[in-house]
Amino acid sequence: MYLSKQSIVYHYHHITHEFLFESNAPLDPLETKFHGVNMYSKPANSTFLKPPAITKNEIVIFENNKWVVKKDTRETVVYKKKDDIENINNIKYHDIVVKTKEDVDVITSSLIKMLGEDKAKTEKMIAGTKPCESWKMFVKNRKQLLEEGQKFISLHNIV
Fold first, then answer.
1. In Å, how far from its chain's centre is CA 2?
2. What is the structure's pLDDT at 88?
3. pLDDT tens across 78-135, in order?
4. Nearest C-alpha neighbor of 144 from the set 32, 8, 11, 4
5. What are the tens digits of pLDDT across the range 44-55?
6. The domain containing residue 8 runs over which residues?
7. How many domains does the chain fold into?
8. Stated pTM of the model
9. Closest residue by Cα to residue 149 from 83, 103, 117
C-alpha cells in the first residue's frame, strides 16, 4: 500500500532493510481531494507499519512486508589475544569489513545519501526563508548518523 490516512512513515535501509528513522509522510494533494480526507504517500524504502520495540543487541528488519526482530552483534567486540595485545579483527557492519576510519566514512556517507539529501536540499531551496520540515528532519538525522559513525570509531579504536 503506497497511500494511507496515517501520517507517519518508517524508513529502512535500501539494502539491509534495517529500520533507520520515522518521519512525517508527504501529503498527497490529488488523493486527498479524491477521497475527501488527508491521504499520505509513502516514500521509497519506507512503510506505514510501525516497527516493534527492541532491546539491546537486537535490530529490526523489514522483510516480506513485515518487521522482523533479529540479533545484533555489531557492537560486540571480537578479538584475539596474542602476546597480551588485543587485536580487533574483522569488525563488520552488515557484511562489510570495517578496518579504517575511511571505511566508516564510506558507510556513513552512503547512509546520509539514503536519507534523501538531494530532495531535502531542493525542498529547502523552494521554501526559501520559510521553515522546511523535511530539511529540518534531514539535518537532525544526518547529525545522528555522523555521531554514530564517530561513536563506532571511538568504540573500536579505529584509525
1. 20
2. 41
3. 554 554 444 444 455 555 667 788 878 887 887 787 777 888 888 888 888 998 888 8
4. 11
5. 899 999 999 998
6. 1-72
7. 2
8. 0.49
9. 103
